[in-house]
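ok so I'm stuck.
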Amino acid sequence: MSEISDIAQLTHYLKRHFVALGELAALGGVVEARVIALIEARAIPGPIYSLWPNGAFSSPIGGSHAGPPSGTPIHWYAPAAAWWVRRAQALSPNACACAFETHFVNDFVTRLAAEPAGHLGYPQVYLAGTFDPAAATLAARSEWQDWLDGGYGVCLRHADAYHAITKTCRRAEVLAMTDHGQMPTLSEAQMGKLLTVMEELDSVMLPFAPHQRPHGTPGLWIDSILARYGLGRTRELAASPLLP
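replied:
not stuck anymore, here's the structure
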């Protein structure tokens, strides 16, 4: 696969799943300067992908590729951030940063306490087998920082507690149910449960860029697991020549 083809595939993916600064501002009903101010205050994440004219590109997951960048880049942002921009309204950027984190943390702790597979996804939150709200709060703050740093912008369709918990816990369930993909065979009942868990995992995740999918959750714990147990394949796997 040539570098030109790689960049063409990445550009197609970014145009489909991400937005430029002007569109993010329009989605949020604000001017671009307001979005920039929210980013600088760490109320919302900055670019999830940056693509330079010479073919260099970068993202928070996987870092930089295709050599040193040259020229003026195009930055691509998570459209999910528009929901947080809309919540900002008349608050100052710094007030937004505090309010948004508080909202996310409270929602996260409440949802995780009710999550049946929480002990698999977030074992550090369960002390002696019991859910610990203080530990859950620390986990929530860490997840919020991952969103602000751009990692969850690569992974998730929406930046909220439900999507973060679902992604982490369903992934953990897939690993547990298949012994990290090493279980030789599964019963019919196990297959049915596995498919339900994988479907929910897939529902909250972005497809990942072509160069990232094979090494990320969709490639490792959806594509590979479907193939291992003869359960078909995803459209992304069938469509992308970059994938095995």
